[in-house]
Fold this sequence. Notes:
nine-stranded mixed beta sheet; six-stranded antiparallel beta sheet; 8 helices; 15 strands
Amino acid sequence: MGDGTNHWITYWNGRFHPDDEVRISPSDRGFVLGDAVYEITRTYRHVPFHLDWHLDRLFAGLAYVSLDPLLTRNEIERLTLETLGRNRGRLGPDDDVLLTHRITRGPNPPLFGGPPAGPPTVIITCRPIAFRLFAHLYTEGVALAVPSVRLPARGGIDPRVKMQSRLAMALASVQVAQATGHVLPLMIDTEGYVTETSNTNVFAAVGDKLVTPPDGSALEGITLRVIMHLAGREGLTIVRRPLHVSELTRASEVLVTGTGSGILPVRSVDRRPLSPLPGPITARLTRAFSDYVGVDIVGQARAHAAERAAT
């Protein structure tokens, strides 16, 4: 499966275009102000995974920022499936993609004040999953490091909104970047409580319980929701409560969940190593998640990474 942008078809403001034909106005509020929401859905065996839940979150975000896409939910669902369908010919039987929605308030001169001058910008893209970036992490694990950037404990923008403005996450990622290894910033609030990483939710095995931050303190991940359900089926006790960063030093296991990779073990928290990798809880949940989605997520990622390395 190639990844040249000119061959992938994107929905853009009423029409379908090759990726390299999409143009964003320099006055678009999404570009100028980050005034936009987005959503990313992956496929398993070419089928969008819980697209309904992703669209629930997308439209909740649109309502929160008072942004009317001028399309109904059913229309966006149809356009999403059509975008996938127009790209299906590029997919091999073991390939999967990310379907990304980006909806901005549209062009708006002047910069501040007044209603937008133009209609909203609506883009739906379909791009291959870069399995090579995380295939090795199922056994090697990802490192978490706490940056100096802090999120507000309360009173800021609702973290459950998947908004386009990602400056805090971007700065945090720059701070913790290393020359080698895979490091994610572990975002904490001003009171020292864990929220999320730059692109995943966090679970910690504390005592005999699997703890994750409460609803309203981080993005309510779709994969997180599934993992909580599977953990219950596996007989694990899930607790949603404030999780102080200091508790991670006592955790026997830490794992992260996200759309692209599903579930990954954490190898260290601020240089404190965790072992074995994956831990027993992570291994159980990885098997359960693979059964749930109908794909061996570790095997699929490794096969793609090996194929890419051979070419």
